[in-house]
Amino acid sequence: MMRVDVVTIFPDYLAPLSLSLIGKAQATGVLSVGVHDLRTWTSDVHRTVDDTPYGGGPGMVMRPEPWGQALDALATPSSRLVVPTPVGAPFTQATAHALAESSHLIFACGRYEGIDQRVIDHAAARMPVTEVSLGDYVLFGGEVAVLVIMEAVVRLLPGVLGNADSLAEESHAAGLLEAPVYTKPPVWRDLAVPDILRSGDHGRIARWRRDEALRRTATRRPDMLTGPNAPDLDKKDRAT
Ligand SMILES: COc1cccc(COC(=O)c2cn[nH]c2)c1
Fold it and tell me: Which of 21, 73, 142, 155 has the fewest CB within 10 Å, making it most exposed?
């Protein structure tokens, strides 16, 4: 059972977590999710969560006090704090697998110009903290990033995906992009499915898929062929 707590000033944004496969994971007891309004932990009449930045500059910064009290209330000895942020490390399938091993994830949804750095520094002294970026762009806040991260992580939990094989075929796990996929009809709008896929020759089909995956990766993501997760290319691959 994985426990997930999300702290946000827009709890309604996280409503999709109760739908579809994530909802099913909760119903089957694989996952338990709590969504919390950060303002719960404010003490002023206006329930203030932000203030002007020291050093000047545009926008507002999220105040440390509410976050500190939220983490005091939610953290356990086995908690990991996950902060979606433009300044985080790239979120990859490897990150998803690492997070899927956790027993308790606390997601902090930042808004405005960010969260007072002392919140991260204080948390890092008492639990693992993972700052992750989904990409090189800026969102209004971390809420939609949490929905993305939760999908990537929850589908890896045991019993969530019906057909375990589709996990095994995870293209990013093999360091390549997936080959193209087809289904019936055999011809659609004068476009035919590649004959090889209907040949029944599973050895040649596997070769065709590998070649297509290599071609597609070389064209669209050459970085994947040289980066840290580069696949081992055998002699037949080099022929491609
Ligand atoms: C923690 O402080 C902030 C401040 C502003 C927005 C956000 C949300 O994250 C992103 O915008 C993002 C995540 N990956 N790529 C972009 C967090």
Answer: 73
Compute the distance from residue 138 Cα to the ligand 1 centre, in Å.
6
Beta bridge pairs of residue 115: 62
Ligand 1 centroid to 192 CA: how many Å? 44
- The whole-angstrom separation of Cα 106 and Cα 5 is 5
Say whether the peptide bond before residue 90 is cis (omega within 30 degrees of 0): no
| ipTM reported for the complex, 2 dp | 0.98
Give CA separation, 85 vs 18, 39, 54, 108, 186, in Å. 24, 20, 20, 10, 45
Tens-digit pLDDT profile for residues 119-149: 999 999 999 999 999 999 999 999 999 999 9
Question: Residue 116: which region, alpha, beta or left (left: phi > 0; alpha: psi -120 to 50)?
Answer: beta
Question: Tokens 């596997």 belong to which residue?
Answer: 206
Cα 167 from Cα 27, distance rounded (Å) = 21
Q: Is 66 in the pocket of ligand 1 (CB under 6 A)?
A: no
**What tens digit of pLDDT does each residue of 64-86 get?**
999 999 999 999 999 999 999 99
- Residue pair 46/16 in contact (Cβ under 8 Å)? The answer is no
Tokens, residue 64: 């440390």
**CA 86–ligand 1 middle distance (angstroms):** 5
Quickly tell me which residue has 């580069």 as its tokens. 230
